[in-house]
Design a protein that fits this description.
The protein is an alpha+beta fold and 313 residues long. The chain has ten helices and eleven strands. The termini are far apart.
């Protein structure tokens, strides 16, 4: 590429990123390690109409973002996260939808020696189909085996590789011999910029139920503290009113003060059996109804068993 062509390409690149920054309010900062060009093409196709992917040198992306900070100063928050092999995904859609689309486009890959494991690798107990001459190979990896039907069988599950560890040559060879592809590579969401705020992708997993539970727990704690120190707040006000009503009701019961709620309590204390008698007929009627239904069911079963015939007919 000649110098003039490169300058033209850079100018077009800056124009494109300026357009994307103006058009889209949300930006996904994604890691692109171990993503091949064909897989990247498939990801672009799956995101068509939902998001746009921009790849390039980190210095060029940072330079373009800095030049746009005059119109949107909040973009400065993105700069610390543009490091390593990353790209930008611009979107207007729901972040959860875009995240799920990126996860759908992961491709299974074998474990290569020297690579950093993105997840734990556990080899399940199985018959490997390998001959007894490979026993020493399993012993070198401290894997318990036995000979079954002329082949090596792994006795129990083995935690072969831990997430974040470097894959060794022996581990990679074993997984290749077992025809296991333990890793899946794709664009990994590292951070999300949304209208001036930057947050981790784990935030997208928070549900409305979890938010309500946390909020309710916080309100309960505020109410407890407010009641303990006798300081009225919106959280403690219903409890304070209820406690005050209980005190007023207790005084009314012991004195001649009357109001509708106190009258009902006084009537119950004066003759509790009246309330029991009032509830008893309803319970008795319900029990009689159940007994009648059971009797009808038993009669129907007897008639079905007879079918109108006798054994000696």
């Amino acid at each position: 590429m000649v110098k003039g062509d490169r300058a033209t390409w850079k100018a077009k690149y800056f124009v494109k990123i300026q357009r994307l920054l103006d058009e889209y309010p949300r930006i996904f900062i994604v890691g692109a390690d171990n993503v091949r060009s064909k897989q990247m093409q498939q990801i672009r196709v799956s995101l068509r109409g939902i998001a746009e992917i921009l790849m390039g040198k980190n210095t060029m992306m940072c330079k373009a973002i800095r030049s746009h900070m005059s119109s949107n100063p909040a973009l400065e928050k993105i700069l610390p996260y543009i490091k390593g092999n990353v790209g930008l995904v611009f979107t207007k859609e729901d972040p959860v939808l875009v995240r799920d689309k990126l996860l759908e486009n992961k491709v299974a890959a074998p474990a290569r020696a020297g690579a950093i494991a993105p997840c734990d690798v556990i080899v399940e107990a199985q018959n490997t189909g390998m001959g007894p001459e490979k026993t020493s190979f399993f012993q070198a990896l401290n894997i318990s085996t036995k000979i079954a039907k002329g082949s090596i069988e792994i006795v129990s599950n083995v935690h072969l590789i831990h997430a974040g560890d470097k894959v060794g040559q022996s581990e990679a060879t074993l997984l290749q011999m077992l025809n296991v592809m333990p890793f899946a590579y794709g664009l990994v969401v590292e951070n999300i910029y949304d209208n001036g705020a930057v947050f981790a992708p784990e935030i997208l997993d928070i549900t409305d139920e979890q938010l309500l539970a946390k909020f309710s727990s916080g309100v309960a704690n505020v109410a407890c503290v407010s009641l303990a120190i006798s300081y009225c707040t919106q959280a403690s006000l219903p409890h304070s009113i209820m406690n005050g009503f209980k005190n007023v009701l207790a005084v009314a019961v012991e004195t001649d003060i009357n109001f509708p709620q106190a009258d009902a309590a006084k009537a119950f204390l004066a003759d509790p059996t009246a309330f029991v008698v009032a509830a008893a007929p309803a319970e008795t009627a319900a029990e009689e109804t159940k007994e009648e239904e059971k009797a009808e069911e038993s009669e129907e079963e007897e008639s079905d068993d007879d079918m109108g015939f006798s054994l000696f007919d």
